[in-house]
UniProtKB/TrEMBL annotation:
Keywords: Glycosyltransferase, Transferase. It comes from the Bacteria. This is Glycosyltransferase. It comes from Sporosarcina contaminans. InterPro entries: Glyco_trans_1, Glyco_trans_4-like_N, Glycosyltransferase_grp1. GO terms for molecular function: glycosyltransferase activity. It is an enzyme of class 2 (transferase). Residues 22-165 form the Glycosyltransferase subfamily 4-like N-terminal domain. Its EC number is 2.4.-.-. Pfam families: Glyco_transf_4, Glycos_transf_1.
Amino acid sequence: MCKIAVFSNMYPSKEHPTYGIFVKNQVELLKKHDVDVDVIAIDDPKKGKVAAIKKYLSWFLRSMLYVMKNKKKLSLTHSHYAFPTGYLSLLAKKWFGIPYIVTVHGGDLDKMAAKNARIAKMTKNILQQAHTVITVGEKLREDVIHRFGVAPEKVELMSMGVDTSVFAPMPKQAVRRSLSIPVKEKSILYIGNMIEAKGILDLIEAFDIVSKEEPEAVLYLIGSSKDAGFMEKFNRHSLRRPDKTIHMEPKPQQELAEWMVAADVFVLPSHHEGFGLVALEAMSVGTPVVATNVGGLSSLLRDGAGVLVEPHNPSSLAEGLLTALRTADSSPNEAAEHRVKSNSYDVIAERLIALYDAAAKGQDKSYE
C-alpha cells in the first residue's frame, strides 16, 4: 500500500484527548488496514492571536520539512479541513507533484471561507486542485460543487465512520447502575463542545419545558468548558434547575459509549453541523436521537432514523425531546440501524483506501 501523509489542524494529545479525536480514529483505522500513515498535526487547542501564530507557523514548517524529506516516498497527502490545512497539500502538489485528497468538515466552508474574499478564493483553489474532495455531509457536498465549482465526479460523500466495536449496544440497566442513574430517571444526554453554536442555551430553555411535563427528567452535558465566556452564560441559564442540569468534562470514548447507552435520549441541538458523528455514535448503541434539521443531521436522521427539530427553537426542541422520551422503549429503529451499517468503520475503510489507490495511480512524478 502507498505511503500517506495526513495533515490536520486538530489532533488529540495527552493533555487534550478529545481534540480532533475523529481524525485520530480514522488514522488508527487506516493503520489497522496496513496503510502506511504519518501524521503532521496541531494537538494544542489554545486560542489567542499570539498562540495561534506560533502553533500554525511551527506546524507549517514541520509539514513542509516533512514533505521535502519524504517527497519520493509519498504517494499522496490527505488534509482534514480545506483551509488552512489543505494549503499544505496544495503546496506539496505544486512543488513536488504529490496528489492530495481533502476532507471538508463544515467549519472550513461555513465559517473560515466566509471570513473574507481572499480565504474564499484560496479555499476554492484548494478544493479544485484536489484529486478528490470528501465531504462528511450532503449539504457540504452541494456547497463544494455549487459554491466552489468542483466537478461532481471529484466529490465523495463519506462520513468519518463509527466504531461499532466501541459504540455498541450494552445491557442498559446494568450500565445505568454502574453510572448511579436511578431506574425511574428520564436521562437526556448531550455530548460536544460547550459553545453557543451547539445550541446549548436553546437546550437549557427546552429542558425547562420538558421538566414541567417530565419531572424525572435530568439533563447531562459532556464537553469541554474551555470557553469561559460561554460557560458564564451557561451557568446563569442552568441555575433554573441546577439539580437537574449536570455538566461533566470530556471523557474517553468507551465511557462516552456507556453514557450513550444509559441515556433515554441523545440530543444534538446544533445551529450548524457538517455531519454530526456523535449522533451516529448514539444511534450505534441504540439510543434515540433528537437533533436540529441542519447540515448533515438532516440526511443522517431522515426517514425516521431520528427526530428532527427546528434550529434556534427551544419549543420545537422540547417537543422533539418529549416525543423521543415517550417512545424510547419502542421497537428497534431499522432506519437508524441501516445508517449505522452504511457508516461502519469497515465500509469507510474500504471506500477510503479505494480513493487513495485511485489518487496514487494518477500521481505526477515529473519532479524526480
